[in-house]
Amino acid sequence: MTYVIGVDFGTLSGRAVVVRVGDGAELGSAVHPYAHGVLEKHLPDRTGRPLPPDWALQVPQDYLDVLRHAVPEALRAAGVSGDEVIGLATDFTACTVLPTLEDGTPLSELPEWADRPHAYIKLWKHHAAQPQADRITDLAAKRGETWLNRYGGLISSEWEFAKALQVLEEDPEVWAATRYWVEAADWIVWRMTGVYLRNACTAGYKGQFVDGQYPSPAYLAELNPDFADFAETRLDAPIGQLGQAAGTLTEEAAGWMGLHTGVVVAVGNVDAHVSAPAAQAVEPGQLVAIMGTSTCHVMSADVLREVPGMCGVVDGGIVPGLWGYEAGQSGVGDIFGWFVENAVPASYTEKAGGDVHSYLSELASRQPVGAHGLIALDWHSGNRSPLVDHELSGVIIGQTLATKPEDQYRALVEATAYGTRLIIETFRASGVEVNELIVTGGLQKNPFLMQIYADVTRMPISLLDSEQGPALGSALHAAVAAGAYPDIRAAAAAMGRVVHGAWTPDPGNADRYDALYAEYQTLVDYFGRHGNDVMRRLRKIRREALR
Q: What does each C-alpha distance from 322 to 90, 274, 348, 438, 489 come to in angstroms?
């Protein structure tokens, strides 16, 4: 018997799972919350410096604590000795990126930079680089840069180049001290092995690394003369392929986790992309939606197409030999969480018995489709696909004095389902077939939500048969890196698991949702495609007021 460990670094916590190599059985798992969570209002207590709107930072020590706590706890839960583990792999939210010194030390860990926001990790949902992202897109379009087509014609504020350019322009001293601009997915592997590789997944999807090269120095210089050497001086590391071994554990890292130095560590990866093989989604047309605080949609195809607003298409970005596509929604579970925390009266929370989401879901499930009279836009964290615009914001239309919390909650759930349908239809309209929808992530546990998604999309929904989809996917890559399987397809066949057709659409509900989806599309065009730029104007007014 041999075992591998998958570690999934999410937005608020990290989780580890111990998996048997022979059949993919999950024998033990553990979750460790980040002590600092997400820094959105101010820097940690030792400085307390306030942060502007749309910032989202993290503390690197929180990631190391996941290795120190979650991995040993998962081993204990599994009843497995560290000596029996042959491989370990990790996945991360993306783009989550940080500035480091030559040896990988994060700038935020140095006393002289502790009060400088730009020295910290920028989490995926840091959206304050939207002006830089707009310039990156506009200049690339003006110059006819061919790599722009691989990103659906739009570059996101969530990605590497926009966030880096923001640092350069807002804190040149931090920029000058930065030796490497590092994806967190690569930093954690670096800390475990002493080897720095940039993984092909984040480099391709988030780092504008297309056909073996980054955007040219001439293009970067036109953005900002001091940005011309960005790729040469701060991204200069070898590219590691998915499932490749990055190295083995150092003595220090092995000691953290109760493992041995012979454990092979795989090249880093993205939480969404590792989930596809775990769901045995290794063939064209199988769209996997990883549903949590946000939703990421990934899929492989045997054709290369330009899909408006896609987050990227990368050769072998998910499995070798196929084009890997990515799209997503910037807010899903985050939106439901915001509503529960800020818009639910005490009378409801008292009746909910500690689980407001389940209580609202139960109340809302009693309603016929359309009975609440509402339509919402799921843009509380901006729109990732297909509009790629984080200046957009949330909307609920149709509220009256009779509107109840469960009405609004249902409208928000439906809005996120409409957003997924819009992504699916955008792929299909671009010539990329979608023939199966597979869901994983924390939200798959909500039957009310899953049925709405089946009805809205008119597609049966399959489920990745694991509560730790990304961690299981990482474990599959660990098995490949350790040599237990020749490639990720073989690992997926032996270790992956999926329940096909777990949820099927109700034809009557689907018909009624078609009418509501048409209204959603009208609002997308009006507010999102410059029919009325009020959302962008309000963002500008807010930023000016908070200076």
A: 22, 15, 49, 18, 12
